[in-house]
Amino acid sequence: MGAISSLGIGSGLDLNGLLDQLEDAEREKLVPIERQVETENTKISAYGQLQSALSAFQDSADALNDSALYESLSSNVGGEAVTAAADAEAQPGSYNISVDTMATRGTLASTGVGAADTPIIDADADQTLTLTFADNSTKEITLAAGSTLEEVRDTINASGDSGVNATIVNDGTDFRLALSSSETGADASISNFSFTGVAPFDADRDVDDGTGTHQSGTDALLNVNGIEITSPNNQVEGAIQGVTLNLQEEGESTVKIEQDTLAVREAVTSFVDAYNDLKGTIGELTSFDSETGEAGDLLGDSAVRTVESRMRSVLSGAVEGEFSMLSDIGISLQTDGKLEIDADELDNAVSNNQDALSAFFVGDSDETGMAGQANTMVEQLLSTNGAVTGAKTGAENSIESLGERYTRMEQSIDQTISRYRTQFGQLDGIIAQMNQTSSYLTQQFDALDAQLGRN
Description:
Its main location: secreted. This protein is of the alpha+beta class. The chain is built from nine helices and 17 strands.
């Protein structure tokens, strides 16, 4: 008997359909594993949200756990004459500032030449341009033979330490080289220039009165609390200890250097907001809707319970000092587990007792103050062996184990279906053979009946 190439041909039965049904039934065994993988992936995503919220809270605690925060100073400026910035060396104080003269750059123009792109330097040899400044210092610049006015300009500008910036100005008749001192101040002012060979043009040192082609640079002149100060530039450092004054215009301003209460207040507020965001994230992950039966991804999770327990322990605990608890600075724990700020109490602590506030949040070391304890607590939770990271790692390991189990199950199903296919093929052949035998016997009986009928 020849081999049957397709199931059911020999028997006439829908063996392929039956085999598909058996395979579907076998593959149902994979569904629980797929659901478990989906559950573990959901947990991993939820743990990631929890980690992000914890990290944000840790960042806010880090900001409060810096003693420099409570020592920082701010500058408040009245008037338009100056702006000011204070650094760590500044001291609280008030200053009346009068800007009499702004620092300016010196300028000097040349006499004119007919064209900017025609050679003006002797074609036979290079020349040296010597720039002279008000403090009698000089700078030499080599000009290539055959240079045009444009090339002279470019050569000057290509020399990074020439002390001037060069441009070309057309006065309506001729082209002039216009030089401007790179730095402000009297000493840095360009005052003259000369050539070693035949000069292609001269310095036009017309009246130095602010209206001519030659204008000397000036030093800034200002008065700080009655003390006259000169500066070669408009950024004045050192006139007031730890304060940089940026002169904006002639006129008067007041500068007050005082404790930066705004930075501290913002840091405390960020700490509270970050905790409340963390609490909100935990609430979403552990929620349960009794009407719909929908539950958060981490409802009843032991890692979340550990986080909440550790957070309550730190934030409701006490530290040594004038301020010992969050409630002492106007921060209270509400019935929903979130923090709330009493703005008046916090403002009073920030404005009048930053030393005690620093002792409360920072303490004597990085781990003794409230912020330090919070930071350490989060660091432990997020460490490799911490509750949150450990739970996430456990879910990842479960997925890996489930993947291996899924693969083994698939292989087993494939083997089972292969066995069924073989058995169905054998069944198909047997039935086909039986059908042939039945057909043969029927023919024989029919023939015998016919013979008996004739007799």
